[in-house]
Design brief:
Layout: E1 29-32, H1 40-48, E2 57-62, H2 67-77, E3 81-87, E4 93-98
Parallel strand pairs: 1-2
Antiparallel strand pairs: 2-4, 3-4
Length: 101
């Protein structure tokens, strides 16, 4: 079966743009939870966030998909600022959290 529509031109797809420069201040503490399943990344964050001065940023590296919803939810529940999520080259995500108290 043949579909009507736009013909392919044979040009290769456009290359992905280079990764954007990180936004905001660099993290004071990086918690490596790569390879750990839920809820371990959250437990590690909860145990270590007090090591970071108020107003500073901590990053949690995680590759469990549940962390994408768990980390922002934990921040809302604990009144911490979820700054951003970034995709890591090696797979997974980096979650940046600013300590508020």
């Amino acid at each position: 079966m043949r579909f009507r529509g736009r013909a392919r031109t044979g040009t290769p797809p456009a290359e992905a743009p280079p990764p954007a420069e990180p936004e905001g201040p660099p993290p004071v503490l990086v918690i490596d939870a790569l390879g750990r399943k839920c809820p371990i990344p959250i437990i590690m964050l909860a145990e270590r966030i007090r090591e970071v001065p108020v107003g500073q940023v901590v990053a949690v590296l995680a590759d469990d998909a549940a962390a994408r919803t768990d980390v922002p939810a934990w921040c809302r529940m604990k009144s911490q600022d979820f700054v951003r999520e970034e995709t890591l080259r090696q797979g997974g995500w980096g979650f940046h959290i600013r300590r508020t108290y």
